[in-house]
Amino acid sequence: MPALGIHTATATGAKVGGVALPGPGAEELTSALGYLKPADIEQIEQAYEVARAAHSGQFRKSGEPYITHPLAVAKILAEWHLDAQAMMAAILHDVVEDTPTTKSEIAKRFGKPVAELVDGVSKIDRIEFATLQHAQAENFRKMLLAMARDVRVILIKLADRLHNMRTLDAVHAEKQERVAKETLEIYAPIANRLGLSSLYYELEDLGFRYMHPTRFKVLDKALKKARGNRRDAVGKIAEQIKDRLKEFKVDAQVTGREKHISSIYKKMQEKNISFSEVFDIYGFRIIVPDVSQAYLALGALHTMYKPIPGKFKDYVAIPKANGYQSLHTTLFGPFGMPLEIQIRTADMHKVAEAGVASHWLYKADETDAKGVQLKSQWLQSLLEIQSESGDALEFLEHIKVDLFPDEVYVFSPKGKIFSLPKGATAIDFSYAVHTDVGNHCVSARINGEPVPLGTVLRNGDRIEIITDPQARPNPAWLSYVGTGKARSHIRHYLKTMQSAESAEVGELLLVQALRSLKANPDEISEAHWKGFFKGDSAKTREEVLADIGLGKRLAVVVAKMLLSKPDTHAEGGEADHHHQHLDSITIRGTEGMAVQFAPCCRPIPGDPIIAQIKKGQGLVVHTHDCPAIHPFHFDPEKWVDVQWDPAPERLFEVNVRLTAANQRGVLARLAAEISDADSNIDHIETEQKPSPAFTTIVFTVQVKSRMHLAHVFRRLRRIPEVVRISRLKRKPQ
């Protein structure tokens, strides 16, 4: 079937066998390209010819020739006045994926930038992946990274998705639901993040329509009915608003705007109300010449109807992260009907409607420079998250966190504004300031008051972060961070630190295992490791050592594999390694995550100790007499000999139980004695009193060693009221 080119297209569009040819669509596109130079239009026509030839014989599910789809996508982009390169890429966007044409052929014919844009929008070859979920995640990663380099990639992809959603009727119900879900989870939030509000609302409405078809029909019918009933009231209110603004000499355009079905549905869900209770299905938009008139209009309206407290938002002084600016207020209208009002300038309106695309749409204006800069900050953060996310699914999880649009605006001590998602905590703020601030933060002050790091931020909070170069991220932070950036930085740091620290301990364990097999660790050469890697999935020595340190591999097994080469086989290599630990591993106490001190017995330097290799946790150090070491279930394979470093560099925690006569001031004297003995109380609680004359308290003190603990005990026994004092070999309840 011959498809018509741009020049040969009939004005009406011919029909062959009942299928409309793409002629009229092509003509419509040409007429929409009036903002481009004739030379550019010519190149776009050439791209159309290539796409038409490549897609000839292909049809969409609806039965239309396939070329109608790229044409429709290009037409959407023409509404945003995108440049010629983006228009060509839109027309060619499915050519590489669905036809034999290659990226290099497009680069040769239309230039490298067009080929890069087409590549950014094309999916990765499906064959590489085991699951559809992983393939989709990898495709998002590819698309989002291409978008971080060139935002036109996402604009083409969004236009592509919009046309697919508009024509989703043609596919079966299961695919409709899958595509709609993906649209609501990823594409609509991206459109919102980039400030493309009209596109965002259309995607939301279409997504809702296909995700919940019955609910959509019911709401649509109710909305049409309500519109008829309320139209007169809205017209009257609009006239009253215009009259009041004239009195205040504000030159404004007033338009009534209807709420979208998806946002009405969201409101019904959030507030658990029925449709009849949603009053504000109408709002008013007021466009004024400049910012001073916007505030004047706001004042005029507040004299006319009373504002609802807490509903005023000034996005002019503090724009949203996507560059959106407007004054929002909700008023008590006639009959108690809430009126939602948006007041903005014409320039703000352009940015609000077209978002990041307004950069192309109104190139002459400089008004949106701030908006574009804000958006590019978010795109930059995508690259940071990507560099620290291991795989595509993890990356997508972080991105989803960052796509939720509700924001809080907070200030640094110097007054710099930071925009964070709703639910963000002081930790999120510390990472928003700088990665190093996040990695080393120890505490926070909000509005001058000390608060826990997990405190959720509120609009207008002033936050100060206190850091310490010795501090490091805590795994518990992952349960309450609200931004993808913070989450990916914390995970990356913990993985890196755990790997480095575990490798250190793993090396000590491997040396010990080699010696127990009568081999000299210094003689293990590169050749031994090469032989080892041939039969193993690990790629680097660090990986193997970290696995040993984390208890994922047994050191003795790795040692035997290293020694199993015939030329280096050590004498007595098969010696019984259970009892031949010739030297033990030295514990300094500063190993970090790779070495943990068991809370059941809290060992301190001077205690005889033994360590257990626990899978995924590394070495867990216990005292010899710890009740957790059950003699009947003792597996020598999983235990290693350890000893204390003669001069440990840190303080260790010990649980102490003390009984004293119940007199005033005893606790203060206990604390003073402990402090004088260069120790510190970390945790304290009282036990149930068997007798009112005595009090038993259980507390945790920090000491350097057993000698230091004995010194603390001697000082405490000098207090006459102290009756009994002992070390507690279990965790306080």
From TrEMBL:
Pfam families named among the record's database cross-references: ACT_4, HD_4, RelA_AH_RIS, RelA_SpoT, TGS
InterPro entries membership: ACT-like_dom_sf (IPR045865), ACT_dom (IPR002912), Beta-grasp_dom_sf (IPR012675), HD/PDEase_dom (IPR003607), HD_domain (IPR006674), NT_sf (IPR043519), RelA/Spo_fam (IPR004811), RelA/SpoT_AH_RIS (IPR045600)
Gene Ontology cellular-component annotations: plasma membrane
Ranges for domain TGS: 406-467
Cross-referenced SUPFAM superfamilies: ACT-like, HD-domain/PDEase-like, Nucleotidyltransferase, TGS-like
Entry's Gene Ontology molecular function annotations: GTP diphosphokinase activity; guanosine-3',5'-bis(diphosphate) 3'-diphosphatase activity
Keyword Protein biosynthesis carried by entry: no
GO process terms (BP): guanosine tetraphosphate metabolic process; nucleobase-containing small molecule interconversion; response to starvation
Domain spans labelled ACT: 655-730
Domain HD, chain residue ranges per copy: 66-165
Keywords: Hydrolase
Database matches in NCBIfam families: spoT_relA
Chain's role: In eubacteria ppGpp (guanosine 3'-diphosphate 5'-diphosphate) is a mediator of the stringent response that coordinates a variety of cellular activities in response to changes in nutritional abundance.
PANTHER family linked: BIFUNCTIONAL (P)PPGPP SYNTHASE_HYDROLASE SPOT, GUANOSINE-3',5'-BIS DIPHOSPHATE 3'-PYROPHOSPHOHYDROLASE
Similarity section: Belongs to the relA/spoT family.
Name of the molecule in the record: Bifunctional (P)ppGpp synthase/hydrolase SpoT
Source organism: Usitatibacter rugosus
